[in-house]
Design brief:
The longest helix has 29 residues. It is built from 16 helices and eleven strands.
Length: 414
């Protein structure tokens, strides 16, 4: 069960497909607009209501991307989430009644855990970000590296409690509906911690090592690569563009939205041309676009096929796109827009695969061009990216999840 943007969904198609191959029957429970993502994977699909893209394009959503500070974006995201989560519960319960175990993303953790408890089902977390408090770094949504060990950990608890409170009203009603005793956000979180509720994290320990102060049951499993089909291909016109000249730079902001996509698109094109580079521009949810023989605008395409054929990737540093760039072994120029993207951008810089992160607000072609020249001409960035990609190819993020399912089965919880 997961909710959010495409990046919050696509990795679970790969996890689900891997579990199917391990002998499990798997259903992905998420927004109906993502049904096509499981096509050919043998993973079932149960639709949840709410179209996240439509919500971001609503007046409430436009207020979110007009926010000038990270704190402002978080406040508006909380408002938006509170107004929507109640619409998910009926379909979550319906899907859960047909299940033996629930795997819950971080975006639905408190709500899904309550459904599992109310239906006496075992559950585990399947998270794409490191959400548990730690002394080693600040909560990813904070967008900064560190405030020091004590403050980092305290901030982690504060963010976790804030997330619980976002769901508090819906969870309270859901507990009453499912015949569970009342329990506030603090008590609910403590219950999960006391039981060492298992959580698998779908990123590589080579990218974010498991924090040494995490409790038992919190594991960094490795990436869950999106299922792109057995014979994923690029559109013929894009293939022709790639073949017609040197490797281009990919530019995309995924599901992130920006206040003035026309201005940002123009700056991106100017930067690419100033750096002497061709570009593949992904429209994304922000509506980027470009024209000219040296530019190609695309919609959704499999990053696993496109990225290895690029000179570098410029992206919003969402967890999924960050992973795809690392898998391809190409340098990056992160342009984090909101929430956990600053965390992943900092990791790219620390890993030596990106020269630095740029802010999308007021982004100018000169700064982007300079970063592109560094990323594509300094061999250290490509060397580091290729070395890390080689390590990622040797990892298997699905098996640890399958092993936890087997352990639950042996304990009689399935």
């Amino acid at each position: 069960m997961t909710a959010g943007s495409r990046g919050d969904v696509a990795p679970f198609t790969g996890l689900g497909h891997g579990l199917v191959r391990a002998g499990h029957e798997v259903t992905l429970v998420t927004h109906g607009c993502f049904a096509d993502l499981v096509s050919g994977s043998e993973v079932g699909f149960h639709a949840l209501p709410v179209d996240p893209r439509a919500e971001l394009q609503s007046e409430r959503g436009r207020r979110l991307h007009r926010s000038r500070t990270g704190a402002g974006k978080i406040v508006r995201l909380v408002e938006l989430t509170r107004s929507l989560v109640g619409r998910l519960t009926d379909d979550m319960i319906e899907a859960a009644r047909a299940a033996d175990v629930l795997l819950l993303s971080g975006s639905l953790g408190p709500l899904g855990y309550t459904v599992a408890e109310g239906l006496s089902l075992p559950s585990m977390g399947a998270y794409l970000q490191p959400l548990a408090p730690t002394r080693e770094f600040t909560p990813p949504v904070a967008g900064v590296r560190s405030w020091g060990p004590l403050v980092n950990r305290a901030a982690g608890y504060g963010v976790n409690l804030a997330v619980e409170r976002v769901f508090a009203e819906t969870v309270r009603d859901l507990r009453r509906r499912l015949g569970l005793p009342p329990a506030g956000p603090v008590a609910a979180r403590r219950a999960r911690e006391r039981s060492a509720w298992p959580v698998h994290h779908g990123f590589s320990p080579a990218v974010v090592p498991r924090p040494r102060d995490w409790r038992r049951g919190l594991d960094v499993s490795g990436y869950w690569w999106p299922y792109d089909g057995e014979d994923a291909r690029l559109p013929a016109a894009l293939e022709d563009f790639l073949d017609a000249g040197p490797a281009p730079v990919f530019v995309g902001l995924g599901s992130a939205t920006v206040p003035d996509p026309g201005r940002l698109s123009a700056e991106i094109v100017r930067a690419l041309r100033a750096a002497g580079l061709r570009g593949v521009i992904q429209q994304g949810w922000g509506g980027l676009r470009a024209a000219g023989d040296d530019m190609f605008t695309v919609g959704e395409v499999p990053h696993s096929v496109l990225f290895p054929r690029t000179a570098a990737v410029v992206h919003h540093a969402g967890a999924g796109t960050t992973a795809a760039g690392l898998r391809a072994g190409v340098p990056a120029v992160p342009v984090p827009v909101q929430f956990d993207e600053g965390f992943w951008a900092a990791r790219l810089v620390a890993l030596g695969v990106a020269p630095g992160a740029l802010s999308p607000r007021g982004l100018r072609a000169e700064r982007l061009a300079a970063a592109l020249v560094r990323a594509t001409t300094d061999p250290a960035y490509r060397r580091n990216a290729r070395s890390l990609a080689e390590r990622l190819r040797g990892e298997d993020g699905v098996t640890p999840v399958a092993e936890t399912l087997a352990r639950l089965d042996r304990l009689g919880h399935l």
